[in-house]
């Protein structure tokens, strides 16, 4: 699993230095940038961790960078650093997918709590995306007939009902069903249904 890194983007050098010191003293790996443009030049979709982002900066603002990253389906969670007058903007950013914001001057313990929660959530969602990708890959390996049987299993049909719908014998349904369970690496019917419904839901989202 790739290492989580806290990416810090803030044009205030003193604040940047103090935040880097605070976060590194807690064992976090930090990469700091003086501008949104500098971060955007190095950003890659595979970045893991979170983004601590100042709302107001010369040139591209934090809000503009957030919009740009969203357009590129960036999965890094964003925590905005805001001055007092920037709270309404930060709240608007939350509605567009940012995970939290913290007001300057902020409490170190509160910042660390937010960052820790953010990193834990990011790790969990990354694991979920990996699982969804694996389920999707396995689904694509099913034959057309196996997929038809699976679709009928998902809606709760029994073997005899599936046989009637598809015009095949119950024995053939049992063979297809066993192959579906094997190919999908499902230990139980409940696990099979949950995994497939989760991936179907994400495809429709």
TrEMBL record:
Residues 135-202 form the HTH luxR-type domain. It comes from the Bacteria. GO terms for molecular function: DNA binding. The keyword Repressor does not apply. Pfam families: GerE, Response_reg. Residues 5-119 form the Response regulatory domain. One of its GO terms (biological process) is regulation of DNA-templated transcription. This is DNA-binding response regulator. It comes from Zoogloea ramigera.
């Amino acid at each position: 699993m790739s290492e989580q890194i806290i990416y810090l983007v803030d044009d205030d050098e003193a604040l940047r230095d103090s935040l880097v010191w605070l976060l590194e003293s807690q064992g976090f790996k930090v990469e700091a940038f003086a501008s949104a443009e500098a971060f955007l030049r190095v950003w890659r979709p595979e970045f893991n961790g979170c983004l601590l982002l100042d709302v107001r900066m010369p040139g591209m603002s934090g809000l503009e960078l957030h919009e740009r990253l969203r357009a590129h389906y960036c999965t890094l969670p964003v925590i905005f650093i805001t001055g007092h007058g920037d709270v309404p903007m930060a709240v608007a950013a939350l509605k567009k997918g940012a995970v939290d914001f913290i007001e300057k001057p902020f409490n170190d313990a509160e910042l660390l709590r937010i960052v820790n929660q953010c990193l834990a959530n990011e790790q969990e969602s990354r694991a979920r995306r990996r699982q969804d990708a694996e389920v999707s890959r396995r689904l694509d390996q099913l034959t057309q007939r196996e997929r038809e049987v699976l679709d009928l299993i998902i809606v709760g049909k029994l073997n005899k009902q599936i046989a009637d719908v598809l015009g095949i014998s119950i024995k053939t349904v049992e063979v297809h069903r066993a192959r579906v369970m094997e190919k999908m690496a499902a230990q139980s019917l409940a696990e099979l249904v949950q995994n497939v419904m989760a991936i179907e839901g994400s495809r429709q989202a």
